[in-house]
Amino acid sequence: MKNKKNVMVCVTQQVTCERLIKIGADYRGKDLGNLYVVHVAPEGVNFLGNSKEGEALDYLFEISKEVDADMTVLRSSNVVKSIVDFCQKNNIGRIILGESLETSSENSVITKLSKKLCKNVDITVIPT
Questions:
Q1: CA 17 to CA 35: how far, in whole Å?
Q2: Secretion signal: which residues (predicted)?
Q3: Which residues of the chain have pLDDT under 70?
Q4: Which of 7, 32, 91, 104 is the most exposed place for a label (fewest CB within 10 A)?
């Protein structure tokens, strides 16, 4: 019997992240776990006052509901720590991320997550 793995999809405040959520739903189906969609917003930034960002997150929330996923917006000044903490609290076995636009691999969220997460968490990077 296959172990149940929860899947986490990390999104930004862009409607194009819809594709990441749908890919996460496909993985959730294979791994037989729950699907979590997570956006980490910097502390002190009022994204709801920005109509484009607020509308995008609202859209992603609707897409999350369509695929039976829980969407969470976290406030933090440390994105990597917030993602790692969420993984530990929610028994995440796979993280789906979009490709980083960071030119330095050292500064990439993906690289930082790889160093902080245990070996039981698979990271799947989806190219742009």
A1: 15
A2: none
A3: 1-4, 31, 45-51, 102-105
A4: 104
